Amino acid sequence: MAAPSKATVVLKAVKKITVQFCPFESNVRSTREFLNLVGSEKARATNMNCEVIPVVKHDKSEPVVDITYVDGEKLLMKGANLTSSEMLSAFQSRCVAKDPQAKVGEKK
Amino acid sequence: MAATLCSKLLPKQGWLPLTQSVRHGSKAVTRHRKPLHIQKQKLLAVTQYIPPAREFPPGAYPSQTKHVQEDNDLTLLMKRELKKLFEDCKMIAVVQNSSSSAEDMMTLRHRLYKHNITVKFFPNKVVRSFLSDSIYCNMGLLFVGPTVMFVSKEPKVKEMLTTLRGSPQMTLLGACIDNTLLSAQGIVSYSKLPSMTVIQGEVVSGLSMLTSHTAYLLQRHPAHLSQLLQQYIKQQSSDGSAEAAPKAEEAT
């Protein structure tokens, strides 16, 4: 669960990521891991305009990851029963789908 | 079944023997699966492994005996340090850092050290096992993932919050201040509380307000009476002096 398929997380197509969780619940582990992966220095370096905002609450609510893309689309992930690798793969697949041309241009 | 040429059979060099045993059949290493010898086949069939029959699949029920690992010496040392920490320091805050480079960490530690707040790193397993034994068992849930502990003897919450606002990667999860577990919002409201002397003054003034009100009510009537009498005396004395003045003027 530590290393996803791609080592780097590319945030080029993302405008804002809000990670909301309640640390005293027991189902927040995957959400916290996702926050670590997305908020790492490497990921932030790919896009300096993207904001990663963690919100800590105490109301026994479910952990939720809210991602806003550059073109306005929103992705809402409820992390209570998901693993971090599942969340990351879903997130990355959408990123790649939105930004394939830029990626292909980079690789070439 | 290799054909071996003995030196005795060949008296002269280069003389091939009359009979040569030729290998037939396949060699030891073949590309296809060589059929086993019947004896070997029988032996394997007899000595085949039959696993014991399980009533339920292995993951269905939780294991009855929990495997308790004995603490090695390093763990014991860390636990002792943790115990001392919890006894000494009034404020222990748990912060998650999703990522911060070494420089960021150093600047943060420097800023916190000015306010006498130290940053401690402990392995999560050790901390959780220690907390589950002590009274702070509910704090154990916080220690998941990369967490850092900020400890200090004096609860300087405001300074800590201002310092943490400077580094965006740090997420404040919770704190244990004066043996009370606080959440993130609890910490913010704790920082907004006024100091102890102010609160004490407020409490004392609130309690004494009622008693002073009662005393005022009791003394109201005699106070009013004494005021009226004083006013009367003044008036009398002013009338007397007013009469005496024109009389003196008439006389002179």
CATH architecture of the domain at 25-98 in chain A: 3-Layer(aba) Sandwich
Low-confidence segments of chain A, given as residue ranges, are 1-5
Shape of chain A: globular
Output the number of helix runs of chain B: 7
Helix-strand string of chain A:
EHHEEEHH
Which band does the percent of strand residues of chain A land in? 15-25%
- Report mean pLDDT of chain B, rounded to a whole number: 81
Summarize this structure briefly.
The complex is a heterodimer of chains A (108) and B (252). Chain A is of the alpha+beta class and 108 residues long.
Describe it for me?
Chain B: This is Large ribosomal subunit protein uL10m. Chain B: Pfam families: Ribosomal_L10. The complex is a heterodimer of chains A (108) and B (252). With 108 residues, chain A is of the alpha+beta class. Chain A has a domain at 25-98: Glutaredoxin (3-Layer(aba) Sandwich). Chain A has helices spanning 29-38, 41-46, 84-98, 100-107, and strands at residues 14-21, 51-56, 64-69, 74-78. Chain A has a 4-stranded mixed beta sheet with strand order 2-1-3-4, covered by helices on one side. The longest helix of chain A is centred in the last third of the chain and has 15 residues, at 84-98. The radius of gyration of chain A is 14 Å and the shape is globular. Chain B is an alpha+beta fold and 252 residues long. In chain B, strand 4 (170-177) and strand 5 (180-182) form a beta hairpin. The longest helix of chain B has 56 residues, at 196-251. Chain B is rod-shaped. The interface between A and B is medium-sized, with 20 and 21 residues.
Descriptive terms for the model:
heterodimer; A: 108 residues; alpha+beta; Glutaredoxin; 4-stranded mixed sheet; B: 252 residues; 5-stranded antiparallel sheet; 7 helices
